[in-house]
Every structure is written in C-alpha cells, then in structure tokens.
C-alpha cells in the first residue's frame, strides 16, 4: 500500500488503515528495512537518502543489547554508517545504509566528486567512528581537502580540533526530524491527561516542516523514553 502526502506535506498513512499497535521485529536488519520504508522519497522535500534512528530500533526490537550487538556486526561488515544527530530532546544516533551514504555525496556535487567519494569510502569502509579528530583527518586529507569537505557538508564542527562525520543532506533531515519530534510532543501535551490513544495520534497534524510521518517520530520518542506506551482496554495508549 502506497503512502501519500497530506495537504500540509506531512507523510501520513491512508485513512482506511487503522493503526492499533507498534510493530515488533526479531532482528535489527528487519527493523531497519521497515524504518527505511517509512522514509519519504528522495524527491520529497529534498531530504536525501533515508536516515533512521537507533532509538527507533530500541522500540522495534525491544532488546538494547541485541540492537547494539547487531549494529556493531553491520558496521564491521560495512553495511551501515552511523551519524551524530544533535537534538535538543535527546542525543540520537542516525543510521544510513553504506551505499546510500556514499551515493549521497554523488547526488550532491559533481564538481568535488573525487574528494567526496574518497571521503565517503574512507568513512564507510575504514573509519567507523562518529567524529574525526584533526590528527586522523590530516593523515588522510590535505587542509584544502578538509575545507572542501566542510563546505560540502561532509564534516560538521564538533570542537576546535574535531568534526562530526556528516552527509550533505543531514541538515535538512535534522530540521524535519526536530520539527516532527516537537510536533508529536505538543500533540500529547495538549491533551487533558497528556496521553492519547495510538489510533488517534495519526489523525493529528504534526505541524509545519514535519515531513517524516507519525510512526517515524513515535518510534523515536518511545525508544528515547520521552514517551511511553501502555496497553488498555481501549487500545494502546501513548503518554508522557
């Protein structure tokens, strides 16, 4: 069943679909494929290739040790790239498929394609940390190349002598992510008892700039602990 955009541009589930439960996955791989399927198309709102959150995996797999172990294995086998997502609500870790991470630089710039592709291959195949210190950067890239990487969104400043590994479209993603995270919290806060049935959440507007969809944000909040769920006779209740 295809997803569609609502009038305000927010990805929503078809009205005929009733959402009454949170999916449960046995493996991180299955959970990632489900999460990637929730992501808007590349042509939608210029969000780039799919980025999902580690916190969402905590919700879907419901075993943090398994999530950490299987993510580590996927990193070692060069199947995924982790990214720092600096959010005011919670410090999150983003996840991209390695192929998508490399291709995101090809999508963004032709002029600097060689240096960007070399950086993408280095940070997806050889270097798996979230950030890059000046010493490691200087051993692999010239000062001019580091400047090019910063200008093209491959590196973002962490401190005076270090950078976070990034992707050119990460800024657009973070803006949409923050908007949706705040929007969902606002929806719950405005209810009388700061709680709402899951089935009712999908009928509420997440607000301007929230392009990632209700389920995407709900899974992130539940995994981060900023929202909780409880089963009731009326259905699954989401509460603060």
UniProtKB/TrEMBL annotation:
UniProt-listed GO biological process terms: positive regulation of Ras protein signal transduction
A molecular-function term among this protein's GO annotations: kinase activity
Keywords (A to Z) from UniProt: Kinase, Transferase
Any matching Pfam family: Stk19
Family: Belongs to the STK19 family.
Alphabetized PANTHER family for the sequence: SERINE/THREONINE-PROTEIN KINASE 19 (PTHR15243), SERINE_THREONINE-PROTEIN KINASE 19 (PTHR15243:SF0)
Name recorded for this polypeptide: Serine/threonine-protein kinase 19, variant 2
Species per Swiss-Prot/TrEMBL record: Schistosoma haematobium (Blood fluke)
Gene this chain is encoded by: STK19_1
């Amino acid at each position: 069943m295809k997803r569609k955009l609502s009038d305000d541009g927010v990805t929503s589930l078809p009205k005929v679909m009733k959402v009454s439960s949170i999916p449960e996955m046995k493996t991180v791989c299955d959970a990632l494929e489900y999460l990637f399927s929730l992501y808007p198309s590349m042509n939608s709102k210029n969000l780039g290739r799919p980025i999902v959150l580690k916190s969402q995996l905590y919700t879907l797999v419901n075993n943090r040790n398994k999530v950490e172990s299987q993510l580590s294995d996927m990193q070692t086998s060069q199947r995924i790239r982790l990214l720092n997502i600096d959010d005011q609500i919670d410090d999150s870790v983003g996840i991209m498929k390695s192929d998508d991470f490399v291709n995101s630089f090809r999508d963004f710039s032709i002029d600097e394609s060689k240096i960007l592709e070399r950086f993408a291959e280095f940070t997806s195949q050889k270097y798996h940390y979230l950030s890059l210190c000046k010493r490691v950067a200087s051993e692999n890239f010239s000062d001019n190349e580091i400047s090019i990487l910063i200008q093209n969104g491959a590196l973002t400043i962490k401190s005076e002598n270090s950078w976070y590994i990034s992707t050119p479209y990460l800024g657009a993603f973070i803006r949409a992510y923050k908007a949706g995270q705040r929007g969902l919290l606002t929806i719950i806060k405005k209810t009388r008892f700061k709680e709402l049935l899951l089935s009712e959440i999908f009928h509420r507007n997440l607000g301007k700039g929230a392009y990632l969809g209700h389920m995407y944000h709900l899974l992130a909040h539940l995994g981060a602990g900023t929202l909780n769920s409880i089963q009731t006779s009326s259905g699954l209740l989401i509460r603060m």
